[in-house]
Amino acid sequence: MTASVEAHVAKTALVPPVIEKGELTLPVTLLELELSLAAFDGDAESFGRTVRIAAQASGGELLFELPASGLLPDCHKIAVLHVPQEAGQGKRIVLAVLDTDKTIRLEEPTEATEGLVRLAEAFVDVLKRM
Q1: pLDDT per residue over 18-54, tens digit each?
Q2: Does the pTM of the predicted model rise above 0.85?
Q3: What is d(CA 123, CA 106) in angstroms, rounded to the nearest whole number?
Q4: Is 83 left (phi over 0), alpha (psi -120 to 50) or beta?
Q5: Could you say which of 22, 28, 94, 121 has the lowest number of CB atoms within 10 Å?
Q6: What's CA 120's distance to the chain center, in Å?
Q7: Strand ranges (DSSP E) for the chain?
Q8: Distance CA 72, CA 50 (A)
């Protein structure tokens, strides 16, 4: 990913979306993260870097990324993110998924990814102790 794409990703993440009060279905930080990921250029090699920059711009962090290995259908890679919830509610785990059509989507953890989420939570606990 070029410096101009990184700058675009960082700049896009700082612009909050315009949302009518009754339309909010996701926390604003997740909407910002989704908008930042929309700039992804489709290059599987830059997936981790793109997700890391977008997560940091929304106040979160990329914990790790790994091949999907059949955990989710139609998916090449999964990035595990630790992102802010609503104001004052701490952070939570969400997944950024690289689809086979080379787009990134955010997903809530499911039963299929429960083990991955437990690993991420343990990873966060270790980081907090360091």
Answers
A1: 434 433 344 556 667 777 677 677 777 788 888 898 8
A2: no
A3: 20
A4: beta
A5: 22
A6: 13
A7: 61-67, 75-84, 91-99, 104-107
A8: 20
